[in-house]
Amino acid sequence: MKVYGVFGDPIEHSLSPAMQNAAFEALGLEACYHAFRVKPSRLKEAIIGAKAMGFGGLNLTIPLKETALQMVQPDRTAKVIGAVNTIAFEDGIKGYNTDGIGAQKALERYGIQIRGKEVLIIGAGGAAKSIAYQLSQSEARVSIANRNPEKAKDLARKVGGKGFGLQDLGTLVPKAEIVINATSVGMKEGDPRLVDKTFFRKKQVVFDVVYNRETELLKDAAFAGAKTLDGVMMLVYQGAYALKIWTGLDAPVEAMEIAIREELSKR
Ligand code: NAP
């Protein structure tokens, strides 16, 4: 039985065990996936320990993704983004970041092409970095707006886009073809609205990386006639790419999506 795991702190609410165990079952693999609480100060030992114990692979989540960069051989994407969400042990300790490709694949599954599109990313944290890098690689025209505008400008410089503060959303949102919320705003009921509902327009695509609830941002965008997409399929596809790295197999994305939506409905 191969063991896989996700490390983070806190980790109790991770949806990855339900999703990856459903994937292993659908593929008929003798494997299991567990969540482990690991503090940043013990991460190196935990990674080396997992390799020594013959783990098949790891995922990393908050607050370990950036710390791990020094402890693995990162691929180009993980290196540029500065964060690792997947580790494989086949040949040394290799680090990857599948968040950005997960977001792109989620958009494509809904028939949304990226190339040449005017994309506005709200946020400049870990999720925003992965998405901005990936979509820029796929030739989108990327703008980034963040509460701290300096972080938006820094990220924009790295990916070849333009950086702004949130006060510019009134101009940026109406002209974007794809608007992506990559902040944590919307995870909790009562969170502030970052985008005034009058800024959305018909046929625009509005994607929120938040996956635990239908956010006010998505409700406002849908009311304006925009095509909306929550963060569940990004979560599925980032996991699907991790599974492909570990096993070489195409992931059963439907089974993974069902497992996540079932798990969310219990919470
Ligand atoms: P992070 O690195 O901590 O970044 C948080 C971002 O949110 C920053 O841009 C921050 O702005 C902004 N922000 C936080 N509170 C704000 C507020 N009150 N007003 C305006 N902006 C605010 O977090 P992360 O790892 O990028 O995660 C962000 C979200 O993405 C979380 O909800 C996470 O669950 C989700 N996520 C989803 C997936 C998926 O697969 N669907 C994958 C990864 C992450 P400042 O820079 O100004 O502080």
List keywords for this structure.
alpha/beta, Rossmann fold, 2 domains, six-stranded mixed sheet, six-stranded parallel sheet, binds NADP nicotinamide-adenine-dinucleotide phosphate
Task: Note down, in words, how this protein is organized.
This protein has 267 residues and is of the alpha/beta class. The protein folds into two domains: 2-97 and 233-265, Rossmann fold (3-Layer(aba) Sandwich), CATH 3.40.50; 101-230, Rossmann fold (3-Layer(aba) Sandwich). 40% of the residues lie in helices and 19% in strands. It is built from ten helices and twelve strands. The strands form two sheets. It has a six-stranded mixed beta sheet, sandwiched between helices. It binds NADP nicotinamide-adenine-dinucleotide phosphate. NADP nicotinamide-adenine-dinucleotide phosphate is lined by residues 62, 99, 102, 123-128, 146-148, 151, 182-185, 187, 192, 194, 209-211, 231, 234-235, 238.
Number of strands: 12
The secondary structure category is alpha/beta
Oligomer: single chain
Main sheet overview:
6 strands, mixed
Large-scale geometry: globular
What hetero molecules are in the model? NADP nicotinamide-adenine-dinucleotide phosphate
**Residues in helices, as a percent range:** 25-40%
Can you identify the CATH superfamily of the largest domain?
NAD(P)-binding Rossmann-like Domain
Strand content: 15-25%
What name does the CATH topology of the largest domain carry?
Rossmann fold
**Unreliable spans:** none
**What is the mean pLDDT?**
96
